[in-house]
Write a sequence for this structure.
């Protein structure tokens, strides 16, 4: 289920013309890469791209490329260890968090501190569960949003390019 949700997130981001930037490895990230590439292929067939298509970039903490990420347009081994989370969060216009391990929790906290719009998906039963609809601290007036579908998550984030580095606005209904 989580892998299909990740695949849908990849599709939804690409379908709106945005790039996908991820860090780490594992089946969830691979599914997101696959969904993004499937959407790029579908959009090319329909003639939806004029010029370059959005990219799928995977930044990894180690020095080598992980196996099984052939779907990423570029895999960037950083050698930064856990610090790769900071680079990804600072580089992103907005964050969609899937699953709830320590790395994702760190990215949510970094994204909050860097004033990035945040949407949690499927946080039930994870460390993220208690963050839904909350503020991490008083530095921002907005809250961490949640979405049940990938399309809704991207919709909540709105126009990613125009909101980079600004506090997110409350969701419109």
């Amino acid at each position: 289920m989580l892998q299909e949700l990740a695949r849908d997130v990849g599709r939804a981001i690409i379908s709106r013309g945005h790039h996908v930037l991820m860090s780490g490895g594992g089946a969830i990230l691979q599914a997101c890469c696959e969904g993004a590439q499937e959407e790029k292929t579908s959009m090319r067939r329909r003639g939806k791209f004029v010029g370059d298509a959005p990219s799928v970039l995977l930044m990894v903490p180690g020095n080598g490329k992980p196996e099984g990420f052939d779907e990423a347009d570029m895999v960037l081994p950083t050698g930064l260890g856990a610090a790769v989370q900071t680079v990804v969060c600072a580089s992103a216009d907005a964050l969609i968090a899937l699953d709830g391990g320590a790395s994702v929790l760190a990215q949510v906290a970094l994204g909050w501190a860097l004033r990035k719009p945040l949407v949690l998906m499927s946080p039930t039963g994870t460390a993220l569960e208690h963050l839904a609809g909350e503020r991490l601290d008083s530095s921002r007036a907005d809250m961490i949003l949640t979405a049940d579908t990938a399309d809704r998550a991207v919709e909540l984030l709105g126009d990613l390019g125009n909101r980079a580095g600004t506090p997110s606005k409350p969701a419109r209904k």
